[in-house]
Design a protein that fits this description.
mainly alpha; single chain; about 300 residues
């Protein structure tokens, strides 16, 4: 076996572990008060399993966290936003993949997985069942760190829920990968808590493009947004997209921006603010209706699988 073929995956593993904070505390995604893992992707097409999903209510839970945050912090808007983040966006130890606990989930994602009924309210597909199943995981697959083993690849496909329609109905609503809520409640807070990013939607969008690895960014734009991305703990261009999974998700970018708006409005009105799905265009959080772009060489199934015939 050529030495190069062995070195590529080993170097990729080292960089991945370094970037996730395994060798240096306080960077990238291993600080309890910063990033959730989010290096995951959604399978939000209507397939055999997802078309059985019923619309679920998340509004009551989110507002209960807001209410508790206000009861704890009073009318201090910034403190209420931080307390709400702790209950919704902060990472949960033990929710990640492997003994290294890599790619931890946000508190809200953990709540969804614990409280929704598998099969009817939430469904988890494997990597093979997803639109990315044509990319076979393996130790020598160096397209992205996600593909280096099957367990990591499966962890990278988040569960899907249905929102915005008639509660309990399968007939309406929008399919949304729960990673969008990590972007909303986690990345949105990082933007809110950063003094410079708080002032400019253009800067926030530029940083979102940098985090996803959007090839539309010029060399000068990459250089401009890199310090801001690093100021919220991210070191690698494309760490949440092109580098880690090969997917540059505009739905993720939308969720991050609207998560910022959630915290901003909460801080301005900590006593009276109420969360509502009407504050969001759910179709912008669906990757079929708000299509992603992909790195060269990533195999992506374009057609929605046809329904299986009844047995």
């Amino acid at each position: 076996m050529p030495i190069f073929a062995l070195l590529v995956p080993l170097v990729t593993i080292f960089v991945s572990l370094f970037a996730t904070g395994c060798f240096k505390k306080g960077v990238q995604a291993d600080d309890d008060e910063t990033q959730a893992g989010i290096r995951q992707e959604a399978e939000d097409r209507e397939g055999d399993k997802t078309r059985r999903l019923e619309n679920v209510d998340i509004v009551e839970h989110v507002n209960s966290v807001i209410k508790a945050a206000h009861a704890q912090e009073g009318d201090d808007g910034a403190a209420v936003a931080k307390a709400a983040f702790n209950g919704l966006g902060a990472k949960v130890k033990g929710s990640g993949y492997s003994a290294l606990d890599i790619v931890k989930l946000s508190a809200f994602e953990v709540w969804l997985e614990k409280n929704l009924v598998e099969g009817t309210q939430i469904v988890r597909l494997t990597w093979k069942e997803s639109r990315y199943g044509g990319n076979k995981p393996g130790f020598f697959n160096w397209k992205t760190p996600t593909l280096m083993n099957e367990g990591g690849a499966n962890h990278a496909i988040v569960p899907t829920i249905k929102l915005g329609g008639t509660p309990g109905s399968t007939k309406d609503g929008t399919l949304v990968g729960i990673d969008k809520w990590a972007h909303y409640f986690n990345t949105g807070y990082l933007y809110f808590a950063n003094a410079e990013l708080k002032t400019s939607e253009d800067l926030r969008m530029g940083v979102s493009q940098w985090l996803e690895g959007d090839p539309k960014l010029t060399k000068g734009e990459r250089a401009r947004f890199a310090p801001l991305a690093r100021s919220i703990g991210y070191l690698l261009f494309g760490f949440l997209g092109s580098w880690s999974t090969g997917v540059i998700s505009f739905a993720d970018m939308y969720a991050s921006e609207h998560g910022f708006r959630f915290y901003d409005e909460l801080a301005k009105n900590p006593k009276g603010f109420k969360f509502s799905l009407e504050q969001i265009n759910l179709e912008k959080m669906n990757e079929e209706k708000n299509p992603s772009t992909f790195i060269e060489g990533l195999v992506v199934e374009k057609e929605v699988p046809a329904p299986k015939a009844a047995k």
